Amino acid sequence: MKRLSMLSAAIGIAIIAAAVYAADPETVAAAIAQAGWATAVVVALRLLAVTLAGLTWWLLFPAHPRPHASVCGLLRIVREGANTLLPLAQIGGDVIGARLLTFWHIPGPLAAATVIVDVLAQAGTQFLFALVGFALVIAHGVGGTFIHDLAWALAAGAFALVGFYLAQRHWGERVVNAALKRLARGREWQINGTFETLFRELRAVHRRRLSLSAAIVCHLAVWFIGALEVWVTLRAMGYSISYSDAVAIESLAQAARGAAFVVPGAVGVQEGGLIVLCALFGVPANAALALS
């Protein structure tokens, strides 16, 4: 897994370098400079979105033991930072977040179970967000091979999402057991508990339907906040796109990023996706790269 991540990261960096060279580095730099004040707004929106995602994670805990909401907010920032900046697959930060939560006296199996269900809720709402983007792209008049291929990709995503959910149920215990051992590269799972306890906690989290429903609604809101980042940035660069256009760009770019979860930080995948999607709305490659 580590070698695959390093190789995919190297390929991604090469793709970014080639894309910037093709778009002309000076024009990319000029587009970044043109964003100006929007950079601070995007940082604030990202902080809002990640903090809200942390509170969403907090909702999945039982009344006792439950960490303080600020702890989940802080560790969600750690999870996001690790997934984006460290040379790990994009689930590495979630493993780190579950482990760190035990320092606040949360049992390891409960910490792991809430992270797993949180990732499921995030992935499920991301799929719904992608469907919204798919509909908006069709409404924009895009058709042909692009829509056909996108439909197949979404169908594959739905299949994977259902598999992820079913793996958390009773019969999926062996599958998850093997996957976690693989992730730990042969070492014991280091979050202070057995797999049997982990699956018991998973079932308990799924039974708290009201909390799970609230978490789903909050995660969906987080995705739409992300579209605001795209809208603010491109408007600051001088492109008159609507918020619905920004939703289409952000939703499908994030879907591509999610599909490439083994690539550290989705390096190269995000840039390529944004170049293609922004072009559908009249935004050139240099601005798409500056946005990324």
Commentary on this structure:
The protein is an all-alpha fold and 292 residues long. The chain is built from 13 helices and no strands. Helix 2 packs across helix 13. The two termini are 26 Å apart.
* Largest beta-sheet details: none
Q: What is the strand tally? A: 0
Protein structure class: mainly alpha
Number of helices: 13
Strand content: under 5%
Keywords:
13 helices; globular; 0% strand; 292 residues; mainly alpha
Short description:
With 292 residues, this protein is mainly alpha-helical.
Would you spell out the secondary-structure blueprint of this structure?
Blueprint lengths: L1 H22 L1 H11 L2 H21 L10 H17 L6 H10 L6 H32 L4 H24 L5 H11 L11 H13 L1 H28 L6 H17 L9 H12 L4 H7 L1
